[in-house]
Design a protein that fits this description.
The complex is a heterodimer of chains A (436) and B (99).
Chain A: E1 7-12, H1 16-27, E2 32-35, E3 50-52, H2 53-57, E4 71-81, E5 86-92, E6 103-105, H3 108-121, E7 125-127, E8 132-138, E9 141-147, E10 153-161, H4 168-172, E11 184-193, H5 196-203, E12 209-217, E13 225-231, E14 235-243, H6 244-249, H7 256-264, H8 270-273, E15 277-287, E16 298-299, E17 302-304, H9 320-340, H10 346-349, H11 351-358, H12 360-367, H13 371-377, H14 384-397, H15 404-419, H16 421-435
Parallel strand pairs in A: 1-2, 1-10, 2-7, 4-12, 10-17
Antiparallel strand pairs in A: 3-6, 4-5, 4-6, 8-9, 9-10, 11-14, 11-15, 12-13, 13-14, 16-17
Helix pairs in contact in A: 1-3, 1-9, 9-11, 14-15
Chain B: H1 8-12, E1 17-18, E2 26-28, H2 31-37, H3 43-46, E3 52-54, E4 60-62, H4 72-76, E5 83-85, E6 93-94
Antiparallel strand pairs in B: 1-6, 2-5, 3-4
The chains are: A alpha/beta (436), B alpha+beta (99).
Chain lengths: 436, 99
């Protein structure tokens, strides 16, 4: 059944990982076909969304010249919320306000479209509005893809799966099993439009600079998860994501949109988004299982990149940089395999894994390998602690004639009542162990 | 946390879709499993587009028109594996303007 290969490589998907991969291969002169199921690249893609400059710089050094970027981030806030208050840290630095900027807010539908135009300029062939249904195998070897079009079978020496978190192709081919609900977060978000000057005033920022707010606490209704608010040029992105297993097990049967609506009404958040005109509502799964949830990512004639391989650093909210880096490293592996002329069996493509292990991608995922389990087993990090901290701060700052020593005692009594001393110390140790 | 009434249809109304009329990309494999075997029916509250609804007789209906293609329903139905989940045909389904 072996048909002549029409392409060196087929890339399934035109998100950050697929584009990084297709661009790098096409630029090196490989014959690349990229298949995207959306109307245009980006039309199926959802992210917070933050772009980390470094990973893209390594692929397109001068991307800042024409990439559609919203705002570069000069300030990050981390909020812990109880029902009525927040306690937070703000990190703001003028260093982040000097080019070259380190990270940006983006709108994925626009950014992916731009990235894809670069891929085509580099020489790859892109076909949109086409869903890949199956991989075509010749024995153990992947030799092509079967698309939902008439005469939709296409052959290549290699297929790179950049088909996102719901990688049905790898599953159907038996490369790995179904995702577990404990390894993915379900996030929902809205984009709220408002005048640019309102955003600048509300967040105390300039024309180009932006703010990120990450939130933990009551807004997740006891579930393991976080909320987020990002400033774009003329809009604000606001969302919340919790582990899918927690949504499923939630005794309140809290809906994702109910959670988001509740969060938007929190007194600390509502004033920041007031008057915003909602223009889109999105939902997306984020692979947050980390190191232990990474599947087999290469085999005979195939490699997996980006979300499809679970490459997300949930602790630091990083994803697009891991996606682009895995895409680039898979591409470099493909280029080297072709140059060597020894075929595209697993042995040749195993270099991809070696490259990943040597990069920040696997080093970071390994560093936090125990974090998902620790957090999942200890929901107090998302419930009691933010409550305790917010209440403690409120108690100390409220001037009501009660002396500070008495307030301190009350705070510690509350801490010990909520979590006991051994619990507090145990949690501190567990957290330290998981992130050291 | 107090549950608040949210009309998700209002949210979905802002989205752009190209519905593949008569060809839903997600199907319930066996209606009987939903009605008589599944107790939690978690799809009816986890689905962020509220595509799954419980009917009076305990059955679950699915209308995929507002689907956001997140994949949650397939994954949470792990006990019964009763969700037949495929991507929509090329070009169909949700079309994000901003993502």
């Amino acid at each position: 059944m072996k048909k002549p290969s029409q392409f060196d490589a087929i890339v399934v998907g035109a998100g950050p990982s697929g584009n990084a991969c297709a661009y790098t291969m096409a630029k090196a002169g490989l014959k690349v076909l990229q298949i995207e199921r959306g109307e245009y690249p980006g039309s199926k893609n959802v992210q917070g969304a933050i772009l980390y400059a470094k990973a893209l710089e390594e692929i397109i050094p001068d991307f800042r010249e024409d990439a559609p970027l919203e705002r570069h981030i000069i300030e990050q806030r981390m909020w812990m919320l109880d029902e009525s208050s927040f306690v937070g840290t703000h990190i703001r630095s003028e260093e982040y306000n000097k080019p070259p900027y380190n990270r940006y807010t983006i709108l994925r539908a626009q950014f992916d479209k731009w990235f894809s135009s670069k891929v085509r300029e580099a020489g790859a062939l892109l076909i949109c509005e086409t869903t890949v249904d199956h991989l075509i195998m010749d024995g153990e070897q992947v030799v092509g893809v079967q698309c939902d079009r008439l005469n939709g079978d296409v052959y290549a020496d290699m297929v790179i799966l950049a088909d996102g978190v719901n990688s049905t192709l790898a599953r159907k081919a038996g490369f790995h099993g179904e995702i577990e609900a404990g390894n993915v977060a379900l996030a929902v978000k809205e984009i709220l439009f408002m005048p640019e000057d309102v955003i600048r005033q509300r967040f105390n920022i300039g024309e180009e600079s932006g703010v990120v707010i990450e939130m933990v606490g009551r807004i997740t209704d006891g579930m393991m998860g976080t909320g987020f608010l990002y400033t774009n040029k003329e809009s604000i992105t606001i969302g919340v994501g919790c582990m899918l297993a927690d949504f499923k097990a939630n005794p309140n049967k809290t809906t994702p949109y109910g959670l988001l609506e509740q969060m938007k009404r929190h007194p600390s958040i509502a004033p920041l988004i007031e008057g915003g005109e909602m223009k889109e509502y999105c939902a997306h799964l984020i692979p947050e299982g980390g190191f232990h949830a990474i599947p087999q990512i290469y085999g005979n004639g195939w490699m997996i990149v980006g979300d499809s391989g679970g490459f997300v650093n949930a602790v630091h909210r990083e994803g697009s940089n891991l996606a682009m880096t895995t895409g680039r490293l898979a591409a470099e592996t493909a280029i080297a395999a072709k140059a060597a002329g020894k075929g595209f069996k697993a042995a040749a493509l195993s270099d991809y894994k070696k490259k990943l292990d040597a990069s920040f991608v696997m080093k970071d995922l390994y560093k936090y390998r125990d974090m998902p389990a620790v957090l999942h087993k200890n929901p107090q990090f998302f419930t009691s602690y933010p409550d305790m901290v917010a209440q403690a701060a409120r108690t100390m700052i409220t001037v009501d004639g009660v002396d500070k020593k008495t307030k301190e005692r009350a705070i510690f009594a509350n801490f010990r009542q909520t979590r006991k001393l051994t619990g507090l110390m145990g949690d501190a140790y567990k957290l330290w162990k998981a992130i050291r | 946390m107090n549950a608040i009434a949210v009309n998700v249809e209002d949210k979905l109304f802002q989205n752009r879709y190209r519905v593949d009329a008569g060809r839903p990309h997600i199907k319930i494999k066996s209606a009987d499993v939903c009605t008589n075997i599944c107790v939690s029916k978690s799809c009816t509250y986890v689905c962020p587009a509220s595509c799954y609804k419980t009917e009076g007789n305990g059955s679950v209906t699915l209308i995929t028109d507002g689907c956001l293609e997140c994949g949650s329903c397939r994954i949470i139905c792990s006990d019964h594996a009763n969700v037949d989940w495929e991507y929509p045909r090329g070009g169909h389904g949700i079309l994000f303007k901003f993502g």
